[in-house]
Amino acid sequence: KKLNIAVVGATGAVGTEILKILETRPYIQHIKLFATERSKGTRIRFQGKEHQVETINSQAFKGVDVALFAGGKASQEYATEALRQGAVVIDNSSTYRLHDDVPLVIPEVNPHALNNHKGLIANPNCSTIIMCMALKPIHNISPIKRIIVSTYQAVSGAGKEAIDELYEQINDSSNIQPKVFPHQIAYNLIPHIDVFQDNGFTKEEMKMVKETHKIFDDKNIAITATTVRVPVIRSHSESIYIETEEKIPLPLVRKVLADSPGVILMDEPDKNIYPMPLKASDHDEVFVGRLREDIYNPRGLNMWVVGDQLRKGAATNAVQILDELLKRNLLYSSHYLCG
Ligand code: 2RA
């Protein structure tokens, strides 16, 4: 059976990528595109047909098999309504990620979490996905006990307006009035992503802690994160230090990473080859390089990881969740089950 799909937030930075990836999938019968009032009426070509972007109405999800929410406020307002109308929901917002009955899934890492889904599946935060893709193959050899991560996050992680803001500031630096970011982002770094929490960390930093615990099903990993916005258009980079329970020889780390689906080992420093945002952009894989054993701790390992956060960090992962649901024959919503 082919599917009726809805994409909510179809005209935003993540929504646009979701459509690009869905375009390649053979299982779509019909697509409905939703966005806010501002984008109403926009025409988008998808699989050879023109579609008009609509705003969500009370019957929006009738007959929809799967609704992909690109993120933001729409999830809070409409995800449960989509479920009620019988759709399986794949949600890219942070709203439901930590709910006990909502699987938080990276298909290469914890696909089994889908088995008991109740209709709503959450897509993890972009920086979390990128980190977990690089770390899970290592965690499988010897459990990771400690993670210290600093991120270098592209402006597109904050949406389309954020990209415009960076270009505007570069084009005219005489009159800068930050709107999306709390400070000028051009020629600057901002060590502040999402809101500050009582413990001094930002919500983005705590997402990396809590979501990784849930995805790895291991609350004992001591994780500390510093998340930084950088004036890069696309692809997040992460400097990651880990400590494993046992020492893992570096050649073995290289081998498991090179063999991991969705990961590309890019680590030939003698040839100036290492991951960079410009190289990773528009790719679905996560790139890992600069692998080196810590000088002071034989169980310590440093690495540099880069991934396109709009692709594997958001859209690709969401569509892969749908692929995985189909593969496992798990495409039903709780509403459907209850009749
Ligand atoms: C960011 N992690 O880059 C966010 C997007 N979900 O701002």
From TrEMBL:
<feature type="binding site">
    <location>
        <position position="97"/>
    </location>
    <ligand>
        <name>phosphate</name>
    </ligand>
</feature>
<dbReference type="InterPro" id="IPR000534">
    <property type="entry name" value="Semialdehyde_DH_NAD-bd"/>
</dbReference>
<dbReference type="InterPro" id="IPR012280">
    <property type="entry name" value="Semialdhyde_DH_dimer_dom"/>
</dbReference>
<dbReference type="InterPro" id="IPR036291">
    <property type="entry name" value="NAD(P)-bd_dom_sf"/>
</dbReference>
<comment type="function">
    <text>Catalyzes the NADPH-dependent formation of L-aspartate-semialdehyde (L-ASA) by the reductive dephosphorylation of L-aspartyl-4-phosphate.</text>
</comment>
<dbReference type="GO" id="GO:0009089">
    <property type="term" value="P:lysine biosynthetic process via diaminopimelate"/>
</dbReference>
<feature type="active site" description="Proton acceptor">
    <location>
        <position position="236"/>
    </location>
</feature>
<comment type="similarity">
    <text>Belongs to the aspartate-semialdehyde dehydrogenase family.</text>
</comment>
<comment type="pathway">
    <text>Amino-acid biosynthesis; L-methionine biosynthesis via de novo pathway; L-homoserine from L-aspartate: step 2/3.</text>
</comment>
<dbReference type="GO" id="GO:0004073">
    <property type="term" value="F:aspartate-semialdehyde dehydrogenase activity"/>
</dbReference>
<keyword id="KW-0457">Lysine biosynthesis</keyword>
<dbReference type="GO" id="GO:0019877">
    <property type="term" value="P:diaminopimelate biosynthetic process"/>
</dbReference>
<keyword id="KW-0791">Threonine biosynthesis</keyword>
<feature type="domain" description="Semialdehyde dehydrogenase NAD-binding">
    <location>
        <begin position="4"/>
        <end position="117"/>
    </location>
</feature>
<keyword id="KW-0220">Diaminopimelate biosynthesis</keyword>
<dbReference type="InterPro" id="IPR012080">
    <property type="entry name" value="Asp_semialdehyde_DH"/>
</dbReference>
<keyword id="KW-0521">NADP</keyword>
<keyword id="KW-0028">Amino-acid biosynthesis</keyword>
<comment type="subunit">
    <text>Homodimer.</text>
</comment>
<dbReference type="Pfam" id="PF02774">
    <property type="entry name" value="Semialdhyde_dhC"/>
</dbReference>
<comment type="pathway">
    <text>Amino-acid biosynthesis; L-lysine biosynthesis via DAP pathway; (S)-tetrahydrodipicolinate from L-aspartate: step 2/4.</text>
</comment>
<feature type="binding site">
    <location>
        <begin position="156"/>
        <end position="157"/>
    </location>
    <ligand>
        <name>NADP(+)</name>
    </ligand>
</feature>
<feature type="binding site">
    <location>
        <position position="309"/>
    </location>
    <ligand>
        <name>NADP(+)</name>
    </ligand>
</feature>
<dbReference type="Pfam" id="PF01118">
    <property type="entry name" value="Semialdhyde_dh"/>
</dbReference>
<feature type="binding site">
    <location>
        <position position="153"/>
    </location>
    <ligand>
        <name>substrate</name>
    </ligand>
</feature>
<dbReference type="GO" id="GO:0071266">
    <property type="term" value="P:'de novo' L-methionine biosynthetic process"/>
</dbReference>
<feature type="active site" description="Acyl-thioester intermediate">
    <location>
        <position position="126"/>
    </location>
</feature>
<feature type="binding site">
    <location>
        <position position="229"/>
    </location>
    <ligand>
        <name>substrate</name>
    </ligand>
</feature>
<dbReference type="GO" id="GO:0050661">
    <property type="term" value="F:NADP binding"/>
</dbReference>
<dbReference type="GO" id="GO:0009088">
    <property type="term" value="P:threonine biosynthetic process"/>
</dbReference>
<feature type="binding site">
    <location>
        <begin position="38"/>
        <end position="39"/>
    </location>
    <ligand>
        <name>NADP(+)</name>
    </ligand>
</feature>
<feature type="binding site">
    <location>
        <begin position="11"/>
        <end position="14"/>
    </location>
    <ligand>
        <name>NADP(+)</name>
    </ligand>
</feature>
<keyword id="KW-0560">Oxidoreductase</keyword>
<dbReference type="InterPro" id="IPR005986">
    <property type="entry name" value="Asp_semialdehyde_DH_beta"/>
</dbReference>
<keyword id="KW-0486">Methionine biosynthesis</keyword>
<dbReference type="GO" id="GO:0046983">
    <property type="term" value="F:protein dimerization activity"/>
</dbReference>
<dbReference type="GO" id="GO:0009097">
    <property type="term" value="P:isoleucine biosynthetic process"/>
</dbReference>
<dbReference type="GO" id="GO:0051287">
    <property type="term" value="F:NAD binding"/>
</dbReference>
<protein>
    <recommendedName>
        <fullName>Aspartate-semialdehyde dehydrogenase</fullName>
        <ecNumber>1.2.1.11</ecNumber>
    </recommendedName>
</protein>
